[in-house]
UniProtKB/TrEMBL annotation:
<dbReference type="Pfam" id="PF07910">
    <property type="entry name" value="Peptidase_C78"/>
</dbReference>
<protein>
    <submittedName>
        <fullName>Ufm1-specific protease 1</fullName>
    </submittedName>
</protein>
<feature type="domain" description="UFSP1/2/DUB catalytic">
    <location>
        <begin position="53"/>
        <end position="243"/>
    </location>
</feature>
<keyword id="KW-0645">Protease</keyword>
<keyword id="KW-0378">Hydrolase</keyword>
<dbReference type="GO" id="GO:0006508">
    <property type="term" value="P:proteolysis"/>
</dbReference>
<dbReference type="GO" id="GO:0071567">
    <property type="term" value="F:deUFMylase activity"/>
</dbReference>
<dbReference type="InterPro" id="IPR012462">
    <property type="entry name" value="UFSP1/2_DUB_cat"/>
</dbReference>
<dbReference type="InterPro" id="IPR038765">
    <property type="entry name" value="Papain-like_cys_pep_sf"/>
</dbReference>
<comment type="similarity">
    <text>Belongs to the peptidase C78 family.</text>
</comment>
Length: 252
């Protein structure tokens, strides 16, 4: 992406994407719905005097259930998080494969996983969910961006020490969105920041599970679809995996 294209992208707060569907189910967001950009902006830190705060650098789009006219409630959260991560790569990275591809569709993600041999042919067109490991494969497949996958066994100390430190280092070095998911807590989420205070740490979470017509950024924040979540509020009996795109050498 050249400087003029990057500047134009940064100036536009939302984006139309035509996914090529013939129509959408009743009550499902339409294919021409506008996707919002940088839905976390304006959200204050969760503590007044953070010891350390690290966040995403650059633009991205917020992908969520049904944003392309396909009702993927109950299984598509991992795909939507991948799309959010892919949009960040599109806006912020240079010299990547498929530089003109903003984000792969759900079916394209499935077909890629079949093509690379990770999934059987029956996976294409299914409603099977995917996680952080598949996210790492997909981003490498479409954009030639490798990912670091970190396994956190769970529990308060492990999350506060291992996950928080990994996230601080990632945002300071790479600045790209992170995908997080687990076993008991198997709801995929995009993590866009981490803030550490005197009484623990918080994650800046963009939740892909919203379904419905477009909400303004302030309303998404008010309803908690974009919010700081205290690390101690996560499921302490669940393990978690983090998918961290290694993008520092590909920034514009």
């Amino acid at each position: 992406m050249d400087e003029n294209t990057a500047a134009a992208a940064a100036a536009v707060p939302e984006e139309h994407i035509d996914w090529g569907f013939s129509g959408a189910e009743k009550g499902t967001p339409q294919k021409t719905d506008v996707l919002l950009k940088n839905v976390h902006s304006g959200l204050p830190d969760p503590v007044s005097h953070p010891v350390k705060s690290s966040q995403i650098k650059g633009d991205y789009l917020y992908f969520h259930y049904g944003c392309d006219g396909q009702d993927d409630r109950g299984w598509g959260c991992g795909y939507r998080t991948i799309q959010t991560m892919a949009s960040w790569i599109y806006y912020n990275c240079s010299s990547v494969k498929n530089q003109n591809k903003l984000a792969p569709s759900l079916l394209e993600v499935q077909q890629a996983l079949v093509s690379m041999g990770d999934k059987p042919g029956s996976f294409s067109g299914s409603r099977e969910w995917i996680g952080t490991f598949e996210a790492s494969l997909v981003l490498d497949w479409f954009y030639d961006v490798p990912c670091k996958v970190v396994h956190v066994r769970g529990g308060g100390a492990e999350l506060e020490q291992v996950a928080v430190e990994e996230l601080h280092q990632h945002f300071e070095k790479h600045g790209s969105p992170v995908m997080m998911g687990g076993d008991r807590d198997n709801s995929s989420k995009a993590v866009l920041g981490v803030c550490t205070g005197d009484r623990g740490s918080y994650l800046l979470v963009v939740d892909p599970h919203y379904f419905g017509c477009k909400l303004e950024k302030a309303e998404l924040q008010r309803r908690g679809w974009v919010a700081w979540k205290q690390v101690s509020s996560l499921d302490q009996s669940s393990f978690y995996n983090l998918c961290l795109p290694q993008t520092n050498k590909r920034r514009i």
